[in-house]
Amino acid sequence: MGRTQMFQYWSYWMLFFFSVLSSVLLVIHGDNSTESSCLLRIKSSLVDPVGVLTNWSPKANMCSWNGLTCSIDQTHVLSLNLSGSGLSGLLSPQFSLLTSLQILDLSMNSLSGPIPPQFGQLQSLKELLLYSNSLSGDVPPEIGLLKGLQVLRIGDNSLTGQVPPHIGNLTELRVLGMAYCQLNGSIPLEIGNLNQLISLDLQKNSLGGLIPQAISGCVELQNFAASNNMLEGEIPPLMGNLQKLQILNLANNSLSGAIPAELRLLSNLKYLNLLGNELSGEIPVELNQLSLLERLDLSRNNLSGTINILTTQMKNIQVLALSDNMLTGTIPGDFCIGSSSLWLLILARNKLSGQFPLELLNCSSLQQLDLSNNDFEGELPPGMDKLENLTDLLLNNNSFSGNLPREIGNLSNLVTFYLFDNGITGGIPVEIGKLQELSVLYLYDNQFSGNIPMELTNCSSLTEIDFFGNHFTGSIPQTIGNLKNLVFLQLRQNDLSGPVPPSLGYCNKIQKLVLADNKLSGTLPATFRFLSDVSLITLYNNSFEGPLPTSLSLLKNLRIINFSHNRFTGSISPLCGSSNLVVLDLTNNSFSGPIPSSLSMSKNLTRLRLAANLLSETIPSELGQLTNLNFIDLSFNNLTGEIPPDLSNCTGLNHLLINNNRITGTIPSWLGTLQGLGELDISCNSFQGKIPVQLGNCSRLLKLSLGGNNLFGEIPYEIGNLTSLNVLSLQKNNLSGSIPSTIQHCKKIYELWLAENFLTGAIPSELGTLTELQVILDLSKNLLSGKIPASLGNLVKLERLNLSYNQLEGDIPPSLGKLTSLHMLNLSNNHFQGQIPSTFSGFPLSSFLGNGKLCGTPLTPCLESNPLEKKPLSNTAVAGVVVAIVFTSTLICLGMIYVMLRIWCNWKNVSIASSDAGSDHKREEEKWVYGEEVMTRNVDYWKVDPLVMAPSTQDKQNPTANCIFHLKVDAETVDHSS
């Protein structure tokens, strides 16, 4: 509870205490001036800035005081009326001592605090009017004690709580007004006891629940308004019993179900408003029986079916609103035949179809006709001029076609004409110049062609013109300056040509001037200096040229300027004179010279776009004073120097683009303090030094582009903190070291450019977790080594992969075959070997050149190999074979040495022995040495693994080749591939 509220409640209880005390004293002493004393105490509780209560003085007769009416004998106050007296303060409980008071009117003041429950003691009270104050708290149930009360109006306050059921005790009540408060709960059932009630106003509260059926007991009710609450359920059919009802307003609740046909019994009903509910079903045809009905609004419900009301029975209908439903079909043929009073018809945002309903031409009294946002089609009838009283004609968002009929010029009362978003063709008829009352003309998004007629400039009341998105040609009428009341001119996206007429500058009430997307040319007229009220000028996508008039600096109300994509030259200084500037976009012109420091006067500037010009010199430090800047684009200019540290004051920056300039120095670490930075592009400059680790603090960064500079050192691990990153571009620098594995945390990245650096080490397998990579993964022209990680096969969205000009080796992993979205692949100039996967056969030869041991389409076919080559031995198997061969060779050598020794011994013996004996022994020795046993043993040895030891085709051609040598070569090959 705030101090003010505590003071109010404290004051209230103090007043209550003194009231009781004074009452006791008055009874004891028998004071005959009870009511005058009471009124003086009431006066002391009020603040009277106007002095209405000045003559409330003991020196004057009470009955002469302002606002009082006394009894004939002037002893009692019968009426106290201080309505609209500018009073404030609290309601005093002392009022309860005015026992003869019949009327208390304190309405339309600034009284606050609660309604005292002591008001229940005013037994003579017939009218209590406290509306339009600042009263708070609950409605006291003691109000129900006022048995003779006829009028209770306490609305337009800050009262809370429920409508007390004790209200049902006020059986004499004729008017109950509790609208525009903060009451909640439901409408009490006891409301049905008020059988004398004429007016019940509960609008603009927070009442919920159902409308009680008991309300049918209020048989005298003429006005029931409960709009803008939260009532739900169906409208009780018993409301048809309220036959004296003239006004029924249940708009903007949550009522559902069908509109009860019993409402036809409300024969005195003049106003029925059910808009903004959830009513469904068809509009009951029985509503046609409400012959006195003047206004009917069923808009913004879920009603369906056709329009079946407004027949000859509804002779008094003046307003019919059925918009924002799901009504179908066309306008009935007898529509409006019997009614000569209909002046407002709103059928917008339904599903009505067919030609323009000619039946409407019978509604000659129509002033406002809204058929917008339906499915009407066909041409507009020439007979539209029968609706001679029309002031507002809204036909937008349909499918009307054909030409705009010339008869439109006969609608002499027309003020607003909406025809946008249709298919109207041809030109604007010159007869439109007769519409002297025409104020708003919206023809955008049609197929109009031809010139804008000069006669249009005769419509001197025009304030708004919107011709966007048509095919108007020719020039802007030279007499456009006749439209002195013009506030909004939109000619964007047409084919207008030629210069802007100087007379346009004399439309000095213009606030928004939109001439973009045309073929306008020439220089801007000097008369633009007279557009003193203009806040928005967009001229982009034209062919304007030359320097800007220096007098444009006089336009102090400019907030949005977009002159982009023209041929303007010279300085931008004339556009820097408005302190109200919010957006300045001069992209893609030929402006030159420095960026003016005078821009710092525009303290509200949020978007500054000067890209693609010829601006030079340094970025002015004064830009740091523009603390509301969230978008800076100075790219593609000739700017030099360093990024001024003053820009660190622009803490709300979302986009900082200064790429393609000649900026020098290091990347400032304070960029890491820009917590909202979403795009940082400083590429293609002359920055040096390392990438500051503080950039890892920019957690909202979506694009980081630092390529084309002279940066060195490693990519910081903190890059992994940029979890929102979509684009990372670091190519064409001197970065070294390995690609940090922390990049795996950048799960949303879809472009990764790291080419043309000095990065080393293996491609981290963690890159395979970046499954959102789509546009490109470019690691080319680095010093990367090792194999392609198989995990890259997970990048199924990837469209371009470039790993060329590195030192990568091994096979191309088969998992890359899953990259079915690839349309560009470059693996050239590495050390890859083996067969190219068949899924890559459609890529050009250049994708694989520079890899000496790759084969397969589109390179040369791979040669057929023997089974060993198709399935090489493991390192362990090769080592085992080599050991076995060495061991066997050793045994053979030892055996041969032994044989040689024996031969030598035998030879020695032979030389001594006799010839017979020697001859026989020699044959036995030869048999033993060269016989079947030895040969068989040798043959069995070669049969152990004939494939391993078999010479290749090349060996057969070169008999000196050694099998063991070839096995070593194979072993080395296996080592490299493992």
TrEMBL record:
Boundaries of every Leucine-rich repeat-containing N-terminal plant-type domain copy: 33-71
SUPFAM superfamilies with a match to the protein in the record: L domain-like, RNI-like
Q: State where it is primarily located.
A: membrane
Please name the GO terms of the biological process aspect recorded for this protein, alphabetically.
Answer: defense response; response to other organism
Q: How does it sit in the membrane?
A: Single-pass membrane protein
User: Which Pfam families would you find in this protein's record?
Assistant: LRR_1, LRR_14, LRRNT_2
GO CC annotation terms, alphabetical: membrane
Q: Which residues cross the membrane?
A: 877-901
The residue ranges of the Disease resistance R13L4/SHOC-2-like LRR domain are 694-833
Q: Name one GO molecular function term.
A: receptor serine/threonine kinase binding
Q: Where in the cell is it found?
A: Membrane
UniProt keyword terms in alphabetical order: Glycoprotein, Leucine-rich repeat, Membrane, Repeat, Signal, Transmembrane, Transmembrane helix
Q: Where is the signal peptide, in residue numbers?
A: 1-30
Name by which UniProt lists this protein: Leucine-rich repeat-containing N-terminal plant-type domain-containing protein
> Which source organism does the UniProt entry give?
Rhododendron simsii
